[in-house]
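pinned: reference chain
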Amino acid sequence: MERAKGPAFTVDEGVKSALPIDEQKIDETVLALLYLTLHDGCRAWKSFDWQTMTRLHEKGLIEDPVNKAKSVVLTEKGLTEAERLFKKLFVKE
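pinned: its structure tokens
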């Protein structure tokens, strides 16, 4: 199967250098999406950009994402903020 041709940007290569990215909005959206994948009370699948996950960890919203687990633990602060952002961004009024 042949790959589609055309510009294939990654955030690091093309888009980030071509557009002014608001990392705060990215962090908020990822945190809200982590809320969407919650299981076991405070764990969420960590299949997001590593730089974003690192920033969320540095802000105290998730525990250290660098480990062998496929999920990350949201802190109490992170869980509260994730729920707030999920409702703000994705729940119909």
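why pinned: Strands lie at 43-45, 71-73. The chain has one domain: 22-90.
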